[in-house]
Specification:
mainly alpha
Amino acid sequence: MALSRNVRIASLILAASFLLSALLGMVRQAIIGAAFGAGADLDAFYAAYRIPEMLFTLVVGGALGSAFIPVFSRFWGQDDQTSAWRLARAVLTYVTLVATVVAGLAILIAPLITATILIPQAPAAQQALTSDLMRIILLTVVIFSLSGLMMGILNANHHFVAPALAPSLNNIGMIVGAVFLTRAMGVYGLAWGAVLGALLHFGVQLPALSRVASAMRPFVSFDWHAPGLREVLILMIPRLIGSAAVQINFVVNTALASGLETGSLTWITVAFSLMFVTLGVIGQSVGTAIFPTLSRLGAKDDLSDFRAALSGALQNVLFTAIPAGVGVFLMAYPLVATIYQRGEWSSFDSEQTAAALAIFAIGLPAFALQEILARAFFALRDTLTPVIVAVVGMLINVALSLTLVAFIQTMPSSGLGGIAAPKPFVGLALANVIATYLETAALWLFLRRRIGVVGGGNMWSGVLRASVAAAVMGGIVYAVRNTLPTTERYTVTLLIGGGVGSVVYGAGMFLLGAPEMQRLVGVVLRRRGNRG
């Protein structure tokens, strides 16, 4: 079954906003990379960002959103708006309180966190710089906690535009910091730019919230007996553990990278952010749009429509994730070089970042599916299963990271079989991809046990079509890439390779009878006919 019209519209809005945010994010990264290069200062900034990001995620990110939205949506679906707003007021108040306390404690012990957990193998001067930057960026934890809850409330009410624009405003704030503040403040300007971005992320949603939540005033309430509050907390605890497991992976990667060649943390961070851009457009847009629908269907125990909506979401995600993974894998270097290679960012930095990006691209379908499958469990008010999977995945990821980094470090510089040895940090990317595929497979199997077959023959035939078309596309893009001069005119290579790949994949899917492509062609032809 295809996605409903409302979900498709919401997905398109979110995909467009993710794309806008992605473009701004790449502009931001390009400016930062050109100004600092993959050196010690940028390593310190990315390391400093890790703890505030982790705290935000634990306090309100995935944990509260996945617990709050289903309960809030249930009250809304039962036309009990009074209880819904009582819950929202209480959650907003307690989240702000917890975020403030946690961020304050982290500010006090920032040097201890840096030296013992975050970058224990880095020089003392870099640890001190990281601590100073972290203290500034920790201000964003409180701001993003408020803003994240606002996003949840608006999405639950099917108001997607303002929350969708928030990440773009965040990027604009960071661009202002990178362009203007760094001139006088150096790398500290990036940290204050992050604070400005958080404020813009929060501010862009206030007008929409004031219209939607007029009945929510006053916004502050310590009502411990608010309907649904304890249920939110119960649902949140397992998800909190799962989010912690994911963040532990990032912290371990940061700690391991701190003992490797200078620039390793920047290379893998930039590579992951580029992969995440693609993931945002493909997986997060559909996942965010479908989640309120799945939550309502799950609250009504309507498993038939639940399976249909979920199957449509998965099929649409794979339709784009498979060719995107192939394309990014083949065009990793031209992509990185086009965005970053200027100023202090060298061709060597591009080569190392592209090596990690190519590995992440292999895992793109698994990353995208995981976005949808995890939300399906949350919509069914089952936060325990994905948490168990995430914790096991974290343990596998950490074990693989330690093993692969150590293995690569023992390889001769000439590599194996005549292929040059990769840098050890590439092992961190490979470990993450392997663990993600295992987690995705486990989520799929557990969900089948819970609700029955998801997708069925239609979805798997769609996967086969996409794989065949992507394979043909990959062969042609590979030939194009090797024909054009990737090292000197990498932008031309990227544009031609990307354009040819898109046309070949689209034509292949149409000839193979893919309903998604046939619907798209039908819409285009109808619009042209109407104009004629």
